[in-house]
Write a structure and sequence with these properties.
The protein is of the alpha+beta class. 45% of the residues lie in helices and 29% in strands. The strands form 2 sheets. The protein has a 3-stranded antiparallel sheet with strand order 3-5-4. A hairpin with a 2-residue loop joins β4 and β5. The longest helix is centred in the C-terminal third of the chain and has 19 residues. It is globular.
Length: 80
């Protein structure tokens, strides 16, 4: 599956799992406040992120999903 993203005059087709999400996008998806993601980044927790500049942080959708899958797997192991 691909999603076409149009910005100004540039159109790029990216696979959905390679999309770059904003901090707000990820926070909304996870039901968190953006500040929680900022705190996690500071202490090396949470999903992998890409630091494009000092003020521009993005998350790949596939990295967020992998992080969630890892949490689910750990919870399963704790129950057995």
């Amino acid at each position: 599956m691909q999603l076409n993203v149009a910005r100004k005059e540039l159109t790029v087709a990216l696979p959905v799992d390679e999309m770059l999400l904003t901090e707000k996008d990820v926070a909304d998806y996870l039901g968190l406040k953006p500040r929680t993601l900022q705190f996690w980044r500071l202490f090396g927790r949470g999903p992998k992120f890409i630091k494009i500049s000092n003020r521009l942080i993005r998350y790949r959708a596939c990295d967020v999903q992998t992080w969630l899958d890892d949490i689910k797997e750990r919870q399963k192991q704790e129950l057995t």
